[in-house]
Design goal:
Blueprint lengths: L7 H30 L3 H27 L19 H28 L3 H33 L3 H13 L14
Helix pairs in contact: 1-2, 1-3, 2-5, 3-4, 4-5
Bound molecules: fe (ii) ion (2 copies).
One fe (ii) ion (FE2) binds next to helix 1 and helix 2.
Main location: cytoplasm
Subcellular location: Cytoplasm
Pfam families: Ferritin
Length: about 180
Amino acid sequence: MSDKRISDSMEQALNDQMNNEAAQAQAYLALGVWADSNNYSGIADFFYKHSEEERQHMFKFLEYIQTRGGEAKISAIPAPRDNPVDLESCIEDVWQHELDNSKKIYALVDKAFDERDWPTFNFLQWFVKEQIEEEALIDELRDKFALASESKDNNANFYSLDRDMANAPQEAELPREKNL
Ligand SMILES: [Fe+2]
Ligand SMILES: [Fe+2]
């Protein structure tokens, strides 16, 4: 296609990340169901909202690829991982997930720089900033979990942790269907 303004390999790399974001949306959706099934309804809402955010990220890549004359290729997304064994491993898993995703974004930034593809470099800065926020958000969840775990009266602490997480600031709202 002659009007394509990104390289073939950049098109592929952006498509890969678009699908990563879609996979993350699914992963957070699955964690939301797991949390809800374990009576952490606040944490479930936190994950459901986060799933919506990841879906918005997926769509940003989709639109960018199309805007640059490339083609967004919607492909199968891998199934989410097995359910976590407990809340602590759930939170650590999410933390690792976000750190891994930041690395993937940085690799794309490196590629854009190497190719002197400044529009893509510029597009990716939004994601660099977003990952700073996401890491901070999940790190806060880790801190809250650590605090809640310290006391002997764990149940009350986990109750307030759960309530707090429902109100943690996120851009996306709950899917409309959840509020029906
Ligand atoms: Fe994302
Ligand atoms: Fe994320």
